[in-house]
Design a protein that fits this description.
Length: 407
């Protein structure tokens, strides 16, 4: 018999909020987190704009020694983890920490710190800090969380580019199903770095103005950063300790396009297939889906492929399902995108408010669904899905729902 898996804690750091209340209020108000980059000099590139985290005071969270050792990615992940851990009441309740694991998605990780080390080295500055190299490993944030909380269960880091943290959530679910853990810390953390920013810029995938998913004027994405952390917990374990149950993780799908290293399969075949897999795994029908958190990168081909895939899965219902493209506000957070957007999907179910897709002004005839343009929508959401599609055709779809009794 399949175990039921609850979401009992959430934490977030991103351009529009450094905790859950800030994030949610900004999301439903349609706040754009895009601003001029301060992390590095972006003058040579297509734009100097990104959805950069601001207003976060690391000194209030970490000691001076930790600040020298922890990259921005590590800091985001640890802050979001602490919020999720507290909200799940795991800082108070006695638990078997050998039955608690961590699996996070990774993107650029601590590359920003490594870049700083080599700039200092090649500019001849004396004694560049070797501690800047500690976070070179993509697994560092995962390891730091496990060490901080003494978590001795399964530990891993997933790297499937922009679907990394969505995949990590699915694998965390599997580990609970297999009986290897009662609780899993999952999601992802990522930070701006010049290497990835310059790569997207050279591919002409960055919009020099704003992120406009599904709008005919779209020119590409805006790079974002941050962390989204979820606590997944076997439902009976959560109820046994009286934990808050925010939603239920119903299932997921994962598949590959096997088409191109950067471009999506143009007809949305992989999009369709991964959503059908997720619905089948979650044992829900297309008719039961109340909202879709779209991948919605605002790149010309991705938005069309996603729209085509949604149409094939949902048929005549497709045009009536409210779709959110929240990258229009938080940017594309790369390795942490799926984690932050999973947090947003859980909050949507909790509050019955569907976040908007901002900057939507000129409809594209090839993207003709209901993208919740510019204003949030109050609507009961019983089941929602969150899509993540990455370079190389790494597709993942997560299904969340309201948690009911033992029926």
């Amino acid at each position: 018999m399949r175990k039921r898996v609850a979401i009992t804690g959430l934490g977030v750091v991103c351009a529009i909020g450094n905790n859950i209340p800030e994030f949610w209020n900004s999301l439903i108000e349609g706040k754009d987190g895009t601003k001029e980059i301060s992390a590095f000099d972006a003058t040579p590139y297509r734009t100097r704009l990104a959805a950069e985290v601001s207003g976060l005071n690391p000194e209030s969270h970490f000691s001076n020694r930790e600040l020298r050792r922890f990259s921005r990615c590590d800091q985001f992940g640890l802050i979001a983890f602490r919020e999720a851990w507290r909200s799940a009441r795991l800082d108070q309740d006695p638990i078997d920490r050998e039955r608690v694991g961590v699996i996070l998605g990774a993107g650029s990780g601590g590359i920003h710190s490594v870049e700083k080390y080599f700039r200092d080295f090649y500019q001849g500055r004396e004694n560049p800090l070797p501690s800047l190299l500690i976070s070179y490993s993509l697994a560092t944030t995962t390891d730091l969380i496990a060490i901080e909380a003494g978590l001795k269960g399964p530990r891993s880091t997933t790297a499937t580019v922009c679907s990394s943290s969505s995949v990590s959530i699915g694998v965390a679910y599997d580990l609970i199903q297999m009986g290897l853990a009662d609780v899993m810390v999952t999601g992802g953390s990522d930070s701006l770095c010049e290497v990835s920013f310059s790569g997207f810029s050279s591919l002409k995938l960055i919009d020099p103005e704003s992120c406009k998913p599904f709008d005919q004027r779209r020119q590409g994405l805006i790079i974002g950063e941050g962390a989204g952390i979820l606590i997944l917990e076997e439902l009976n374990h959560a109820r046994g300790r009286g934990a808050p149950v925010l939603a239920e993780f119903l299932g997921y799908g994962i598949c590959a396009d096997a088409y191109h290293l950067t471009a999506p399969e143009p007809n949305g075949e992989g999009v369709e297939r991964v959503m059908r897999m997720a619905l089948s795994h979650a044992q829900v029908s297309p008719e039961e889906i109340d909202t879709i958190n779209a991948h919605g990168t605002a790149t010309p081909f991705n938005d069309i492929a996603e729209t085509r895939g949604i149409k094939r899965v949902f048929g005549k219902r497709a045009k009536g399902i409210p779709i959110s493209g929240i990258k229009s506000m938080i940017g594309h957070c790369l390795g942490s995108a799926g984690g932050i957007e999973a947090v947003a999907t859980v909050l949507t179910i909790q509050h019955g408010i569907i976040p908007p897709t901002i900057h939507y002004e000129v409809p594209d005839p090839l993207c003709d669904l209901y993208y919740t343009p510019n204003h949030s929508l109050k609507k009961e959401v019983r089941i929602g899905i969150s899509n993540s599609f990455a370079f190389g055709g790494n597709n993942c779809c997560l299904v969340f729902g309201k948690c009911h009794g033992n029926e």
